Amino acid sequence: LATAAFLLLHIILVIGPLCRLNPKFLPLLYNRRHMGVSMFILALAHGIFSIIQFHVLADLNPLISILVSNGQYSSLANFPFQPLGLLALAILLLMAVTSHDYWLSNLSAPTWKALHMLVYVAYGLIVLHVAFGILQAETSPILTGLMIAGFVLVLGLHLVAAFKETAADQPLQTSEEFVAVCRVDEIPEKRAKIATLAGDRVAIFRYDGKISAVANACQHQNGPLGEGRIIDGFITCPWHGFQYCPHNGQSPAPFTEKIPTFNVKIENGQVWVATRPNKAGTEVQPAIIQA
Asked: pLDDT (tens digit, 9 = 90+) per residue, 245-261?
């Protein structure tokens, strides 16, 4: 159970950077939350069986027994690894119970994302839990090597994806209220060019002879709208298919999500975008591409 949960956690953690590096991995995103809940169930079952095996017959409450049965925090060889696992399980529980869209809607996308970034804290605790636990008694280097390889894989993919993202966030030439983003012919039809303005990413879409710009973050799970495309007249998020009108940032009825829009203009074939966003859902006249 523990091995299955640990392996599944590695898979979950590499999905994000893999999608940043190659869009062919995007279908995995649709099931990442399901994988996360499944991983928590496996980890919970492991924790329950471990508590029954090692703590249920103690005089203390089993959870208290986990925290106080070993106080050798100054010893690497006998470090109390079980509290690390319990804390990681508590974080995974919090993430599992808030995985539904109900919590995403009520907590807001930024708060929900910040909460679920705790998965990296849980991962670090689990790595330490394993390192100070079973690996202390393991004489074969195979398990140690596999855990190190998994850690290097997760860290390496995140660093490579971060390097790619940072390279794309280059400062742009400004002209008071507007920023020169690109030429019109650099934006594929029904696709977008992503630019960074004042630290925020903006998706500039070209469609049906027009140019519109919106905030790049989807209101669902902060998905990168600029990596999606316009389908049936709506900007469609590549992660979970949420849609927005390009000229006002509003989702089609009956949905109520809204994203900020940006004023745009075209001068001599160059696309200029306003440096400040409009309020979410604000109607903006698209810039017309002259033939």
From this structure: 999 999 999 988 999 99
